[in-house]
Amino acid sequence: AKRPPIIKILSLVSKRTAPKRTMRASSILSLLLWSSAISTASAGLFKKKHRRQKAGTKYEPHGEVHVVVNKVGPFNNPTETYRYYSLPFCRTHADESTHKEAYEEERNIALESDEEEEEESASYLRKLEIKGNRIGAERHKQRLGESIVGDRRETSPYELSFKDDIEWRLLCKTTLDKHDLIQLKEAIHNNYFFEMFIEDLPMWGYVGDIEDEDEILGEVEGQSHTYLFPHLHFKLGYNKNQIVSAAVTTERDRRVDITNVNKPTPVQFSYSVEYFEDDLPWRMRMTRYADSRFLPGSFEIHWLSIINSFVLVLLLTAFLTIILMRVLKNDFSRYMEIDDSSMEEEESGWKLIHGDVFRFPQFPVLFCASVGTGVQLTIATLLLLGLALTGMISTTRRGSILAGMVILYCLTTTVGAYISTRLYFQMNGKNWVRCVLFTAGLFPVPTSFVFMWVNTVALFHGSTSALPFSTIFTIGAIFALVALPLTVLGGIVAKNYANHDFNAPTRTTKVAREIPTEVPWYRSRFVQMVVSGFLPFSAIYIELHYIFASMWGHQIYTLFGILLFAFVLLLIVTSFISVALLYFQLAREDHRWWWSTFINSGMTGLFIYAYSFFYYFHRSGMTGMLQSSFYFGYMSIVSFGFFLMLGSCGFHFSLLFVKHIYSRVKCD
Q1: Separation in Å, CA 7 to CA 3, 12, 39, 62, 529
Q2: How many contiguous H segments (helices) and E segments (strands) does the chain have?
Q3: Are 604 and 574 in contact (CB under 8 A)?
Q4: Cα separation, 73 vs 188, whole angstroms
């Protein structure tokens, strides 16, 4: 057999060249092989995708309207989603002749019908010509945020045209075998819904329904029935030449009984279209989803809850301010009136530990990294809420909030590194590079571990919640090329330009003072942690329910002004409570306030995580390994983020408080 030309060339090269050139040729050959392997893998992973259908299209009469299918999954498990075509739906459209036969059967038009009915049917069929050029199950290009939230948009064979009503049209005829019937029946029993888009307007519907099912025993043979909904009715509203509303409904009159999975069942998938004039402006098109029958009801007591939280915060802060001001005023007056001869006899309380209160904490690298990361997350959250409130980040675009948070976190890493490195130098730290590295990985590393676990579970289940390789690569590239360099930049700026003087108002003694061990139970560390976590949590408890309903349900959250207000209230309450508890700690002569203040302030994050268990078991219908992994895994990251944000906020207010009170009294 003749050898390929490439083999001949390589054999000649191997015979006529020196050993060095032979090594060079082999390296070139290996490079060619690797390039071939990579190109082959790329051809499989990065297939050509359809351009995404941009919203806001201005249609011409009879212009093509595309229906984009997305995913299916159990309604109670919003994270457990799968490709739309994981179920045996139609991927191609029926041709003209097949549709005509089915339409005549649907209309019960016999050959002996009168001529007027025949002419009406013939004119209807001629007007709605089927092109058959749309193929389903072909991927669409997606934004970063859409991939993060698990969207997998694909083409569909539905043929819709602008302002053209369709009374009934056959999509495809098929016979469902045992495997298909079992798959559909299991989906219906798990309360599966499907999601589609027209002009980025989401539409939802159920795959099927169950009748006469026993609540305890479930399906009872001969009594309960499982029905598939093969017909979809699209109802589209238009304002001038734009589509501003879209909904899809299923018709119970056309349902198909698939209870018996052992018998092949013929099914006609079909659809109809209805257009109506709508005065809704295109920019307000998402407001209708608050009244959708498919989604949970609107939140009637939302404003009442935020007013209740505001009044609670106002009373709490006023109470703490009055108490602290009166107590501190008495302390100042008592310390100022003592003369030098009786100072040592009368000195007690928080003034007694003036030589130890500014003694730096243990594990300074971890402490500084926690404070810096908390400040960074706080600034990123405030920026995100502000951009969402001003409309610069679209709150109705799928995944835009998550994608915005990823970008803002990477852009604010400079702030976190600057704060942590500056504080580290003020604590007389020497290994500032280690502090920068801790700051860079304190939040991303736990998030990565949780992501690897939940993504593995999602891949095992075949869910669309598993991020594709391209999305993982994009996020990793953003972190490596943006976040890490900015983190290093923040550390360098803090090292060279920040003020490294701590400016403590009192001198720190060389030997630490002994801390009293006998304290009342109500002043113990555990009670402080419970109080410091529960009071701020009570201020946001009602609002937290709505946030959970949006994060882990199908509710669309748009009240970002209220959310920003609630977040600011949370920061204020946490700061006041941390200062109050710090005063009581110093009054019992305990000077180890650095870590205790940070942990006390961040305890609200632990309460949020505890509330997530209550919400999962008593306020939602979520079940299963996949949904539980995503829910508890990512809620642990959210709670950890709140722990860092509130801990750093409480620490900074406490530091100002300590410096203020010790600068007002006379100390040796």
Answers
A1: 6, 9, 21, 59, 74
A2: 19, 13
A3: yes
A4: 10
Per-residue confidence band for 24, with pLDDT thresholds at 50, 70 and 90: low
Q: If you search the block for the tokens 């704060």, which residue do you land on?
A: 419
Specify the DSSP class assigned to residue 292. Answer: -
Q: Look at residue 153 and give its three-state secondary structure.
A: coil
Neighbours of 265 (CB within 10 A): 19
Give the pair of three-digit tokens for residue 282.
């295109």
- Residue-wise pLDDT for 181-229, tens only, equals 999 999 999 999 999 999 889 999 999 999 876 555 556 666 788 999 9
Burial class (CB in 10 A: 0-12, 13-18, 19+), 526: exposed
Q: Which of 591, 571, 570 is nearest to 582 (CA)?
A: 591
Query: Nearest 10 degrees: CA dihedral of 635, 636, 639, 644?
Result: -140
Contact 474, 151 (CB under 8 A): no
Task: Name the DSSP letter for residue 46.
Answer: S
pLDDT for the residue numbered 551? 85
The identity of residue 272, as a single letter, is S
Burial degree of 511 (CB within 10 A; 0-12, 13-18, 19+): exposed
CA distance 493 to 485: 12
> What would the two tokens of residue 450 be?
């949780």
Q: 155 with 114: CB under 8 angstroms?
A: no
**Distance of alpha carbon 123 from alpha carbon 111, whole angstroms:** 16
Q: Are 49 and 139 in contact (CB under 8 A)?
A: yes
pLDDT digits (tens, 9 = 90+) for 126-159: 455 777 778 888 898 888 888 888 899 999 999 9
Count CB atoms within 10 A of the CB of residue 385: 20
pTM of the predicted protein model: 0.83
Q: Which residue has the tokens 């809420």?
A: 385
CA 411 – CA 485 distance, rounded (Å): 10
User: DSSP secondary structure string, 556-572?
Assistant: PP--HHHHHHHHHHHHH
Q: Where are the alpha helices (DSSP H) in 136-224?
A: 144-148, 178-189
Q: Rounded to whole angstroms, how far apart are CA atoms 170 and 193?
A: 22
d(C-alpha 100, C-alpha 104), whole Å: 6
Distance, in Å, from the CA atom of 589 to the CA atom of 514, rounded to the nearest integer, reads 9
**Structure tokens belonging to residue 621:** 């219908």
Nearest in space to 78 (alpha carbons), one of 151, 137, 135, 127: 151
Q: How many residues does the chain have?
A: 668
Give the count of beta carbons closer than 10 Å to the beta carbon of residue 554.
Answer: 18
Contact 146, 235 (CB under 8 A): no
Residue 70 is inside which H or E element, if any? Answer: strand 68-74
